[in-house]
Amino acid sequence: MLMTNTKYTPTIGLEIHAELKTRTKMFCDCLNDPLERRPNTHVCPICLGHPGTLPVINKKAVEALIMIGMALKGDIPQFSKFDRKNYFYPDLPKGYQISQYDIPLVFGGVLNGIRLTRIHLEEDTGRLIHVTSDKGQVTSLVDFNRAGVPLMELVTEPDVENAEEAVQFARELQLILRYLGISDADMELGQMRVEANMSVRQATSNKEQGNAKLGTKVEVKNINSFKAVYGAIEYEIKRQTEAIENGEKVIQETRGWDDATQATVSQRKKESAHDYRYFPEPDLPPLDLAKFNLTELKTAIPELPQEKRIRFAKEFALAPEKIEVLVSDRRMAEFFEESVSELALEDNKHLPKEIELLSNYLTSDLRGLMIEAGIGFNAEKISPEHFADLIEFISHNRVSSRGAKDILKKMFETGLDPHAILKESDMEQISDTTALKTMAEQILIANPNAVKDYKSGKLNALQFLIGKAMAELKGKGNPGVLQEIFKDILED
Ligand code: ZN
Ligand code: MN
User: Fold this and answer.
1) Which bound ligand lies closest to the C-alpha atom of 17?
2) 3-state DSSP of the chain
C-alpha cells in the first residue's frame, strides 16, 4: 500500500466575483460607477426594482463574458438564459438577483491547471453602510449605486490544493481580466471578491484518498486582498485539521475573514442548503448566442500573460523575474516592446546589452517614478522613441547612469525629448577620446610619482590618476574611456 506524506488533504474550490467595466449597468442605462461617493446617484426605477419596469440586457457585458470564457478555454453554448435567484436582503431591492442557473454563458475552462466549472453573468447588489450615533445607536443606510452593476462569477472545481495555489489562481485571473480590459479587478476596491469553499479530509493512503468522502464543507467569505486569500485558507486548513485531530466535528457553515485578528469567524450556520427557488427570468428573452459575432470577439483577445511570458523569454533572453514585472502590466509590456523596436532601428551592435539596460530602466526607474507619482503605468509623456534614445545615450557613454536618471526624471515631468534635455543641461559625458587623451597627458606630467608607482607594479596608482582627471573634468569624463587611455599610454 502506498502511503502519502500528509495525513490530511485539503479540498478547495474558489468562487470569484468580478465587476465588469461596462459604461452602463447590467439591465438599465444608469452609469456603471460603483465607486461614486455620493450615495444613490446612479439609480433608476429598473435598478431600484420598481414594479412594472423591464430590464434590458447589456450586450457589452455578455460580450465581456464570452471573451473571458474563450480566453480561459471554456465552451460557449449556443443558447443561454437568465434566472431569478430569490432571497431577501436590504441591499437587494427586487427581492431577487438576476443571475444564471442551469445554462451559464461559459461551461468549463481551465486556468493554471485548475479546472473551471462555469462562468456566469449576474448583477451586483447595493451596499449597506452602518452608522453609529453618539448614543451608540446603529442606523443602516443603503446605497444603490452598485445595484445592477454587471458581475461575472467564476466557479472552479475543487482542484486547488493549498493557499499558494489559490493566490496564484486569483492573481492570474486578475491579470487576464485586465489584459482583456473587461475589469480592473482591484480586490481592495471590491472589484474582485474571492470566496473559498473548503474542507479537509483524512487520508492515510492514496487508495483510501480516492474513495474517501470529502470532509464537511466550510465557506469563507469577505476575502478582499490576496494576503487575506492566503491567510484565510491557511487558517482554515489548520483549524479544520485540529478539529478532526481532537475528535471534534467540523460544522457546515459560512465564515468570514477578519483582518484584525487574522482569523476566520463564524457568520452563520447552515442547517440545510439554501433554497433560492431559481426560475427563468420572465422579463428577459433567452440569449441566442448565434447573434453574437464570436469570431470577432475571439480576434479581439490579445496575447495573454502566459503566452507573453514564454515569448519574452525566447525573444529577449531576460531573467524570469524581469519578465514577470514587464508582463504584470499589459501597457508596460507593450511599451517595452515598442521601445525595443526603436532601439533596433538605431544599431544592432549592442542590442542584447541595450535590451537589458532598457528593461532595467523601465521596470525600476521609470516604473519607480510612476509609483512615486501615485499613478499606474502611464507613458503619456514618454514615447518609446524617446525612451530608446535615452538608452542609446547610456549605451554609447554619452551620459553617466546618474545623468541618465536625471534626464529620465525631466522626461517624465515635462515630456521633453532627451536630446533637448541633454543639450540644455551640462550633463553630457565627455567620451571624446582626443579631449580625454589631452587631459590624461597633462595629469601624467603633473604626477610623475604616480607614474613611477604604476610602472613598479602598484596598479592602484591608475585609480589615483583617473580620479585626478575626473576632478579636472568636474566629474563628466567617462571613467571607462579614461581608464583605457591611461593604460594605453602607461603600458606603451
Ligand atoms: Zn438604473
Ligand atoms: Mn454570485
Assistant:
1) 2
2) CCECCCCEEEEEEEEEEEECCCCECCCCCCECCCCCCCCCCCCCCCCCCCCCCCCCCCHHHHHHHHHHHHHCCCECCCEECCEEEECCCCCCCCCEEEECCCCCCEECCEECCEEEEEEEEEECCCEEEEEECCCCCEEEEEECCCCCCEEEEEEECCCECCHHHHHHHHHHHHHHHHHHCCCCCCCCCCCEEEEEEEEEEECCEHHHHHHCCCCCCEEEEEECCHHHHHHHHHHHHHHHHHHHHCCCCCCCEEEEEECCCCEEEEEEECCCCCCCCCEECCCCCCEEHHHCCHHHHHHCCCCCHHHHHHHHHHHHCCCHHHHHHHHCCHHHHHHHHHHHHHHHHHCCCCHHHHHHHHHHHHHHHHHHHHHHCCCCCCCCCCCHHHHHHHHHHHHCCCCCHHHHHHHHHHHHHHCCCHHHHHHHCCCCCECCHHHHHHHHHHHHHHCHHHHHHHHCCCCCHHHHHHHHHHHHCCCCECHHHHHHHHHHHHCC
| Centroid of ligand 1 to alpha carbon of 122 (angstroms) | 15
Distance 85 CA to ligand 1 centre (A): 19
Measured in Å, residue 219 CA sits from the centre of ligand 2 at 13
| 149 alpha carbon, closest ligand | 1
d(CA 153, ligand 2 centre) in Å: 6
Distance (angstroms) between ligand 1 centre and the Cα of 189 equals 21
Q: Which parts of the chain have pLDDT scores under 50?
A: 1-5, 205-207, 209, 211
Which residues lie at CB < 5 A from ion ligand 1?
28, 30, 44, 46-47
- Ligand (nearest to CA of 99): 2
CA of 3 to the centre of ligand 1 (A): 58
* pLDDT reported for residue 148: 98
* 97 CA from centroid of ligand 2 (Å): 9
**CATH number 1.10.10.410 is the correct assignment for the domain at 433-490:** yes
**Domain range list for the chain:** 8-299, 305-425, 433-490
Q: Which ligand is nearest to the CA of 54?
A: 1
Prediction pTM value: 0.86
| Spacing, Cα 17 to ligand 2 middle (Å) | 7
User: pLDDT tens-digit profile of 360-418?
Assistant: 999 999 999 999 988 888 878 899 999 999 999 888 888 888 889 999 999 999 999 99
pLDDT of res. 439: 86
